[in-house]
Amino acid sequence: MRSSALKHIRIIFSSILLVAFVFMFVDFRDVFPAKLHRWLLYIQFIPSFLKYTIAGVATATGFLVIIIITILTGRTYCSFLCPLGSLQDVISRVGGWFKRRYRKYGYKKPYTITRYFILALTVGIMLMGGTYVLSILDPYSTFGRFMTFFIKPVALFLNNLIANILSNFDIYAVYKVDVKFYELAVYTVPVVFLLLVGVLSFRYGRLYCNSICPVGTFLGLLSKISFLRMKFDEKGSCTRCGRCAVSCKSSCIDFLNKHIDTSRCVNCFNCLDSCSEGGLKYAPFFNLRTAKVKEEVKTDSSRRQFVAGAAVLMAGLPSLLRGQDQVVRSARASTVKEDRLYPVTPPGSVGIENFTSRCTACSLCITICPTKVLQPSITEYGITGMMQPRMDFKTGFCNYECTKCSEICPTGAIMPLMLEAKKQTQIGKAVFIRENCYVFTEHTACGACSEHCPTKAVHMIPFDDFLTIPEVNDTICIGCGACEYACPASPFKAIFVDGNSIHEAALKPEVKKLETGNDDFPF
Amino acid sequence: MKRRNFLKSSMGAGIAAAAAASIGSYGKVFGAEAPKMASDYDIVAVKGPDPASMFDIGIQAMGGMGKFVSKGQRVVVKPNIGWDVVPDRAANTNPELVKRIVEHCFKAGAGEVLVFDHTCDNWIKCYKNSGIEQAVKDAGGKIVPADSESYYKPVTIPNGKRLTSAKVHEAILDCDVFINVPVLKVHGGAIMTGALKNMMGVVWDRGFWHKNDLNQCIADYALYPKKPVLNVLDAYNVMLRNGPRGVSVEDVQNMQSQLLSTDWVAVDAAGAKMLSLEPKNVKYIPIAAGMGLGKMDLEKMNIHRIKI
User: Does A183 touch chain B (CB under 8 A)?
Assistant: First the structure.
C-alpha cells in the first residue's frame, strides 16, 4: 500500500509555515497579525526554552510541547515547524533541479562525533552562562538572520521598484522604504552560515540538521525513544529496491540491513511516498521490538546521555546561569568606547547582562523595529554578543509610543512592557557636550535635540541674544535617543545617550496647568 | 512631471482633448473674473468654535477657494504632521482643518489634492495618529509618503544667503499650487513655528538648516519661487510650552483661532503676537521681511478680524 498522504501534509503544512515565517521577518509594513507572531514564536525550541528557563516566563512552554511531540512522533519539529528545516528542503529541491544526483541521497554514516561534540559544546557553554553558541547555532535565529540580512533587502528593492512605477500614476498605496544596510562586520556569521547551510542542503539534503544543528541532535536523541517512528514492515514486503534510501534527505535508511537511524530521521515521509511495495511504515515502535535486539544495545549509551543531559537542562539551570553574569560583563568591558561607557539595550531588556544572556540574535526585533533604531551590534557587547541588537541612535531613535520589540521577542531577552511603563523606563541618559553644540560654537539657533525630546528632559534655556541652548534634566530622560539622532553636529554629536547598564526608572515629566489667555486678537 | 503628463495624455488623449475643450474656455472666463493671489486683506483672522467652520468663514473672506485653486489643478496641502501624537496635543495641524481645506479644494475644482509632510517621528505613526491620514482620505485626497530620499529632487534657492540648494519633495515640485497649513506652536530652537518654518517639512535634509544658521535658512527657503498660494495658520489649539513636540495636553491652550493670508511673513508676525512674542524677536521673521518676502509690521496691515 502506497502512503503519500503524510508527505503531502508535511509539504503543505511546512510551506504555509515557511511563508508565514518569511512574511513575519520581511513585513516592512507592519501588517503581520500579532496573534500569528505569538504562535509561530511559541513553537520555536531554543527561544521558548530560553524564555522559560532564563527569563522565567511560565507560559513559554513551546519547547516542552516540542519535546512531547518528539517523544510521541519523532523529529516532527524538524520537518514541520523549523523554518530553517523547511528552507533547506526548498534549497534541496532546487539542488535537484540543477543535478539529478543531488536528489539521490542513499544511506550514509552519521557524523556522530561532530554532532554530539557540538551539542555538548552548546550545552556546556550554556551551563557556564553563555548563550552565544546557542545564538549562532539556533536554527530559528539562523533563519531569522537570513531573512533580515539577505531576503528583506531584496523584498524592499522589489517593493521600491513597484512603488516607483506606481508613483508615476500618483498611486502611493505602495510606498518606498529605503534599503539600509548594516555594518559590514555583522554579516560575517550570516554569510558563513548561508554558505554552510546552502551548500549542505543543496547537495546533501538535511546533513546540516544531522551533523551541526544542536536542536536536531538533541531531538534526535529524544526520537530514539519516540513512540511513532519510521520502520520497515515486519511482514517482509520490502524488496530491497533501495528507493527509500535514495529519497531520504537524512541519508538515514540502511535498506540492505533494513535499519532506519531514527535519530536522524526528520519525519519528512519521502520514503513512504517512494515505496510502492508498502515495505515501510510510520507506526508505533513496539511491533518492531523483537527484530531490533541488536539495535537496542547500540543506542543505549546515547539514550543514557540524553537522560542525563535532559535532567541537567531541566533542573537548576536558571540559577546556574544567573551566577555567570561576570562572564558577559568582562567581555563587554574590554570593548567599551571612550565616549560611551555602555551600549544601550532596548526598553524591556532590564539591563545589559540580562539582555545579552537571553538574546539569540534572531534579529526579529531589528527587522520589525519601525524606526530602525535597533541595529545588530559589532563588538559593543563584546565579541560574544555580536549581532545582538543595540539601540543605534545614528540610524533612528526609539518611538515614544512604541513597544513593538518587547511584544515580539521570542526569548524573553526583551520582556513585555506596558506602554506607560516603557515611557518611564530609562535605558540611558542624555549627555550634553556644550563644546560641540552649534549654538555655542556658531552662535546660531538650533534646538533640534530639544525639539525631538518627548519628555523635555532636553530643554532649551536662554543663551544670549534670543538664542537658546540645550540643558538636560536626566531624572526625566528615558534615553530614547531622539536628541542624539536629531543633533546635526558632526563628526561628533553635541548630545548623546550613554546606556544604563541596568535600566532605571525615570520620573514622570512634571505637568503644570497653563494660565488661560484672553479672548481677543493680540494684534 | 513630464513622464506623468506623457503617460496620462497618451493614455487618454481623446478624453483629455474633449475635456480641455469644455473646461478650458470656462477656466479662462473664471480666471478673468477673479485675479489670483490678490486678497483685499493682508490677514484674515478668525475666532470660532471649531477649525472647520472657521475655515469656511475665513476662506469666504479671502474671496473663496476658487481664487487660489482652479479647475483640474493638482493641489498640495502641506500641514504639519511632524509628531506621533494625537490631535489634542496640537503638535500637528488639526485634522478637521486639513479635511475641510481638502474639501474646499475639490469644491473649487481641483483635479487632485495631495497631502504630505516629512515627519520627525516615524512617518506611518505620525500620519495615522495625527488623524490626518484618515481626514485626507475621507475628503477624497491622497496622502503621499515622504520618508524616502528618492521622493526629493534637488533645487537651487536663488539668492539664498546660507541655504542655496535643497532637496524638495516632488509633490511640491509637480503641483500647480500648494496651500501651507502650519500649526502655531512655540519652538525650543526657532522660538516659534508657523508658516515659514513649516517648509522644513518639504525638504529632505533638515539637519543642514540646523547646522547653518537655522533662522537664516528658514528665511532663505522662502526665496524659492514656488511659494504657497495661501497660508492657513491653525491656532485652534496652541502649544504654549515644551514646543514643538509638547509633553502633555497641559501645554496646549484652546485659542480657537485661525489666520489666513497670502503673505507668510505677515501670518507669522501675527502668530508671534498670539504666543506673546514680538515678531522682531523671532529672528527669521525680520530676516524674511528684510529680504522683501512679506510684511511684518502688523500696525500697517489691513487685518480682517472675524468672530463667529
Answer: no
Distance of alpha carbon A54 from alpha carbon A319, whole angstroms: 8
**Per-residue exposure over B161-191, b if at least 16 CB sit within 10 Å of its own CB, e if not:** ebbeebbbbbbbebbebbbbbbbbbbbbbbb
Cα of B24 to nearest chain A Cα, Å = 23
Residue B65, min C-alpha distance to chain A (Å):
23
> Residue B30 domain-assigned?
no
Question: In order of start, what are the domains of chain A with their CATH numbers?
Answer: 5-319 (no CATH), 324-505 (3.30.70.20)
**For residue A322, is pLDDT > 50?**
no
What is the rounded average pLDDT for all residues in chain A?
A: 87
The CATH number that applies at residue B82 is 3.40.50.11440
Enter the ipTM.
Answer: 0.85
Residue of B nearest to A461 (CA): B188
- Provide the whole-model pTM: 0.85
Cα A430 to Cα B46: distance, rounded to the nearest angstrom: 42
> How many structural domains compose chain B?
1
Residue B6 lies in a domain: no
Q: Are B139 and B93 in contact (CB under 8 A)?
A: no
B47 reaches A (C-beta below 8 A)? yes
In a domain, B12, yes or no: no
Q: Which of residues 138-177 of A touch B (CB under 8 A)?
A: 160, 164, 167-170, 172, 175-177
Query: Which domain covers residue B75, as residue numbers?
Result: 42-307
pLDDT of residue A157: 96
